[in-house]
Write a structure and sequence with these properties.
The protein is mainly beta and 147 residues long. It has a single domain, classed as Lipopolysaccharide (LPS) transport protein A like domain (lipopolysaccharide transport protein A fold), CATH 2.60.450. It is 15% helix and 51% strand.
Amino acid sequence: MIKNKSFQILSAILVFGILILLGYNERNVKILPSYRTSSMKNFHLTHKEGSEVKWELSADKAVLPIGNKEVFLESLSLKINRTPEIFLTSGSGIYEIDKGNITLNKNVELNIKETTFTADTMKYNSKDEIITTDDKIKFNGDNFLIE
């Protein structure tokens, strides 16, 4: 009988302790996200000068950190409307909102007609309309391959 009463007392204390832990709510603690972002799927951006479309940027996903001047892109393509048209694709990249520059990362391919240029990274300067890289480039066409 003593064992039964002590078991009931211990059970009651345990239940009371669990209820206190579950019901505890500290009012002075605020949870603030350290890195607030917005994101969107099937991102598409068109850059125009007057009525002429200079380039079009598309990405499977875009992450837009609040207050940041950059958009982080995943699986992107860039079409530059020149003669001939230039197409760039890459696994990821960054669009600089203020300058309009686009950095492409992760196996970048640049296609002009039947020629493909491949590099690890490339940067498109929107103002000067220049594509640059500091990496090794591989040229591939119908009748040639240069590494």
